[in-house]
Amino acid sequence: MLPRLLKEKQEEALSPFAMHSRLSRGRLKAEVHCDVRTVYERDTGRIIYSLDFRRLRHKTQVFFDPQNDHICTRMEHVIYVNYIAKTIGRALSLNTDLIEAIALGHDLGHTPFGHSGEATLNRCLEESGTGLRFQHELHSLRVVDRLAARPGGPGLNLTFEVRDGIASHCGETYGEFLLVPDRNKVDDAIEQTALTHGFPVTLEGCVVRIADKVAYVGRDIEDAVRAGLMEFDDVPRAIQSSLGRTNGQIINTLVTDIIENSIGRDQIMLSQERGESMEELLRDNVERIYRSDKIDRYEKMVSNVIEGLFDALVQATHDPERLANSDHRVYRAFWHYLQERVWPESDHALQPVIDYIAGMSDSYASKCFEDIYWF
């Protein structure tokens, strides 16, 4: 028996609520099956070998601090999400191959400088009067569907379930204790799901969505401690008593609670007590970390860089001939980027600028800004 068929046979022992690889709704373009790997294993390979995944190691999670090797990057975050989600998935007898692909791909479309970069780029679009907006979940879908390159054409041609999990992973809805898969979702509703923060089509996607929060709620405190913003003892005593006094304790408490309340059910659920404690801790992080003076100063820097790049590149697109003949390395690199890709007529004229900036690492964005504006 082929290795892939053996794996698919073994999946019959999974939970009745698990997604089976052989039942995938398929890819945007049909492909011949691999003899060795399941469809979701192939998706994971395409994701981790993409240049977009590679750049995550140079993208901010919360803190931009290139001098501190221990501050969490976007790459480390997706690895933590993957580990936590697979731990939950194994305990619930779900398809961990599907979980892994979604977890490792869920932030491929994040901007440089984390959510600060995302907010600034979205504000630039709002002020442009075009009606465009930027949402990293949707852009992650755009990356895997259109921008990431592989032999045979643009896009990674991932399965429906992985694409859906990426687009509907939203980890910023704090009061979410119960996730029920939207199994009736139609194939062309993925983008709308991202806009409305609807639930994933699979239970595996729901696991990744909740694991995203579990991964960062305590880890952001660790980074804040390293940045000198707070100490773990600053966390309210009631939350410490409910969840724990370290990141490891918080993760263990939440993972155990999720498993206990979700096993044997077609839903992913936190108990009321742990769910409310996690929500309270997330909101406490907003006040102590995300709205701190240090982050505020950082966001001002991010705004300058992203706005400066956006204005310069938009202006450059107004004069294609000058852009093509420019000897400035930033504009020359942008010109080559434009020539290497096919831009459908349905794309707005600003879309290449959005794609180019969103794909930058923190360091590359900063360097481009300096090259344009510093003398």
Structural commentary:
By secondary structure, this protein is an all-alpha fold. The protein has two domains: 39-108 and 148-291, Hypothetical protein af1432; 295-373, no CATH class. The chain has 18 helices and four strands. The longest helix is centred in the C-terminal third of the chain and has 25 residues, at 293-317. It is globular. The model has no long low-confidence stretch (mean pLDDT 94).
Strand content: under 5%
The portion of residues assigned to helices is 55-70%
Biggest sheet, open or closed, and with what strands and sense? 2 strands, antiparallel
Report low-confidence residues grouped into runs of 5 or more: none
How many beta strands in the DSSP annotation? 4
Name the shape in a single word: globular
CATH architecture of the largest domain: Orthogonal Bundle
Describe the secondary-structure layout.
Layout: H1 3-10, H2 39-48, H3 51-54, H4 74-91, H5 96-105, H6 114-128, H7 136-147, E1 149-150, E2 153-154, H8 160-167, E3 178-179, H9 190-196, H10 203-226, H11 237-243, H12 247-262, E4 268-269, H13 272-290, H14 293-317, H15 320-325, H16 329-339, H17 351-358, H18 362-373
Antiparallel strand pairs: 1-2, 3-4
Helix pairs in contact: 2-5, 4-5, 4-10, 4-12, 5-8, 5-10, 6-14, 7-8, 8-10, 10-12, 10-13, 11-13, 14-18
Task: Describe the structure concisely.
This protein is an all-alpha fold and 375 residues long.
Which terms summarize this structure?
globular; 2 domains; 4 strands; two-stranded antiparallel ribbon; mainly alpha; 375 residues; Hypothetical protein af1432
